[in-house]
Amino acid sequence: MEPIAIVGIDCRFPGAPDTRAYWDLLLRSGDGVGEVPRLRWEAKEFHSAAGSPGHTNTTEGGFVSDPDAFDNEFFTISPREAAAMDPQQRLLLQCAWRAVEDAGIAPHRLAGSATGVFVGIMGNEWAQLHLTDYDNVTAQIGSGNGYCMTANRVSYHLDLKGPSLAVDTACSSSLVAVHLAVNSLLSEESDVALAGGVNVALTPALSIFYTQAGLSAPDGRCKPFSADADGIGRGEGVGVVVLRRLKDAVADGQRVYAVIRGTAVNQDGRSNGITAPNRWAQQDVLAAAYRRAGVEASDVTFTEGHGTGTALGDMMEIKALGHHHAGREGKPMALGSVKGNLGHTEGAAGIAGLIKVALALHHRVVPASRFAAKENPGLKLRERGLRLLKAPLRLPATGVVAGLSSFGMGGTNAHAVLESAPAAAGRPPQPSGAPGGLAAAVFTLTAPGVNSLRRNLLAQADAAAARRVPVGALGWTSNHVKGGHRYRFAVSAVDTPQLVTRLREAAADDDLLARLTAAPAGRPRTAFLYTGQGSQYPAMTAGLYRDSALYRSFLDEADAALLPHTGSSVRDLILGRSDDIDAVHRTRWTQPALFAVEYAMGRTLDALGVRPDMLLGHSVGEYAAAVLARALPLDGAARLIAARGALMQELPDGGGMLSVRAARESLEERIAAEPLVGIAAVNGPQATVLSGDLAALERVEAELTADGVRTRRLQVSHAFHSPLMEPVVERFAALADEVGGGVPETPVYSTVRGRVLDGEAMDAAYWTEHIGAPVLFADAAAALLADGASHLVETGPRPVLSRMVRALGGARPGSEPTHVTPVPAEDSGGQDLADALAALYRGGVDPDWDAVYEERDRVPQQLASYAFSDQHRYWAARVPSRGAAPRSVAPVLEVTEPERGRATQEPQSGAVAVLNVSRGKADGPVALAAMEAVGQVGGYSSDELTPELRLYEDLGFDSVMVMELKTRLDERLTGLDSVSVQDLLPRLATIGDLVSFLHEIDAAAPGHEERTA
């Protein structure tokens, strides 16, 4: 059989709320058994030490904590539906989510995929309590029950398109589910499979059955293969594993806990009784599993037995194992059973055992078995080549084979053969050779609401603080696993202690959390702004060159392209390695140096997955923009910019530039009589730059000063973009003709034209005109903003253009673009670029995260599982009693600290707010009636509902609920007789939309008159 990898695990068992706690319980031989919680039933009411009819002989068992807690808002399930759901569905839904995350997969990435869901389950006591209360059966009660729904609910909420089914073979159900999942993967019916089991005891029915059948342990504890064994103790639990074909898991670099080598399922057939175990069938299923796995019985180091602790069950199992292992003299096979720790978890027993075996192989130690100290001598374990584990068994790193048995009460037997993961598992894919790394990580986290975000920030901080894991690996894993929700949090960190500090600070500080979180409404429109001459300085971007291999590679590439035309290294000049530190301010070097930096910065961002929708360059900044837009090749642009700088350097002194606080139009009249002065740049409505002959500029400056107009002389070597540039135009044009140029593939907002280029080439004529033409930055930037730029990334050595864009104004309130500066200061390095990437991610950009990290950091790590809210409580409306029928009680439906509606001390920011934060209450009888109807259908209280809430996305409405909503509206309002459900559907975007529709059709609340303006 092709091997199948276990790549993800999550579970909850008695005394163990998560996988880590489960492993800890096993290692210390812990006991998860205790008294029956009053939430289930009154144990004393059903107890009889003698086991009289209708009673059980024990008051104890293995019960999970908080089975009533469910984060319904996370899954967009209404309170009414959540209250109707079998808690087995609720537990499994949360467990499946966490298992997928544990596999290193963001659950939303499985949406639409051929992922199968296979669930083992044997109890349906929720249905016994609710579907027999005929007067209170609702649509929600119907879909909240049924074995099928345990699997189907997972497939629905994760949008999985593979097989989805529940299996009931009694105690072997979940291992049979694993068997079916394995076969689905082998047949390529599924590419990923979720296999699990769940069991919650809601009534004493099975406890009474075990007692009456003589199978129940008085102390509620299973004692597998022990001399003290005296029957079954019931247990609860839920577990899910994520399975993939091993070759696929290894190819993707996923961590592998263990490998399933073979599985087999058979049936007892006609034995001594339908509930009596059949030794011969059990030894046959072992043989079939060994055969399918391609192993001999002697290869098996240890087996997790079924081990219920009943006299007949233990004896039959030992004889079946002994048939295969009796010849192992001096090296008996180790045997144990987790039922000694948990009790018999019934439908979840197989998955409990599978997870134990997988963790043992992963951690290379088999935990000791509870109650192993006193072996049952009647089992003759040693003679049969077996031994109980009285102490932990250390395992080698690879090549260990283990077995797992699970036998159903009705005769369906299952066995699986597992092996330790191969050495290649968990390693990153073959090195790509592409540079990466920023010397800082970007840790990302998403959540459906701000409360849930805070909760999970703290969970991640605690987990990171408890382990010694490099921050790069933590960041890389978070990028790939913790996505998919509305609120995006991102923060940079250079090491793990800084990450822990920043996560905790964000969780504790509303204002900081608001700055580090956003809820993007859609795909952002990103613009790169390339700065012009004047932004240069010695050693510009030296810190980034030091920290980022990616930036380093692109600056080296630009330097290599420029070198044939400059004669010496521009890179060395940029980084301050030249003896002439001021050379960067001389035009011959300034222009190619800026081009190299801006080309490298643009290519770095592009490689990081930040691909611009728009480009704008101020003066010489257009050269780098043209290369990124594929209007110029790198070597052609390098040749042009080097020649441009050198030609301008040859011009004589005597030119200057003057910044004037005045409009272009008013200045054109003043300079009309000065032929050697021209408009060099228009940076804003009242921000114009004049350029030309110094003497002429002095005359213009004097006139302006006399008229009270503010001016400022710029420190430049030449009068750029002025008539004084005319002597170099002809020589440059000849060179430009050789280079040419094409139409940009990405929209370029030209500062020569003051608008976006519409099918126009950036050719020789364009670059020649570029030398003397005024820089129409204000017009180009205004056009870019008008076309919806949401994020402006200043792609240069320091922020200059962002300030100029802010000064333009004109943006609608609330629609101001976000300014992102990868190099905010002269000493900026890799962490500043990481901060910029974090800001873009918060805004909706999905970076190429692999490029952020070095190869060594692209290794999956175990992050803290998603921390679901335990504030929402739902439990049975009826509890078992000694009467003829369960007695009815007020349903437990407790909802506190909602993510919606109520004030919860959320950050008061437009970027981060509580999920659908309230902007107002319903006004008028029709609106109030609509709110009441929505609340009744969904189970929401009036103070949880606001007009802005979306019925489907926020309140969990579906087609059945919409039909009921129409009925509830009909009960409260007139004027809806001719309105069908189909008429209603298009107007259910929000509660407010529904209210508007009701007003449009003149619906009215009887006894009230609507006041209209």
Key attributes of the depicted protein:
11-stranded mixed sheet; 1013 residues; 4-stranded parallel sheet; alpha/beta; single chain
Overview of the structural elements:
The chain is of the alpha/beta class and 1013 residues long. Helix content is 36%, strand content 15%. The chain is built from 34 helices and 32 strands. Strand 27, helix 29 and strand 28 (818-820) form a beta-alpha-beta unit.
Percent helix, as a range, is 25-40%
Question: Rg from C-alpha positions?
Answer: 36 Å
Q: What is the residue-averaged pLDDT?
A: 91
Structural class: alpha/beta
Report the β-strand fraction as a percent range.
Answer: 15-25%
Instruction: Tell me, briefly, the overall form.
Output: elongated
Query: How many distinct beta strands?
Result: 32
Please describe the biggest sheet, giving its number of strands, its sense, and whether it closes into a barrel.
11 strands, mixed
Amino-to-carboxy terminus distance: 76 Å
Going across the major beta sheet, what is the strand order? 5-4-6-7-1-8-15-14-9-10-12
Low confidence ranges: 900-920
Instruction: Tally the helices.
Output: 34
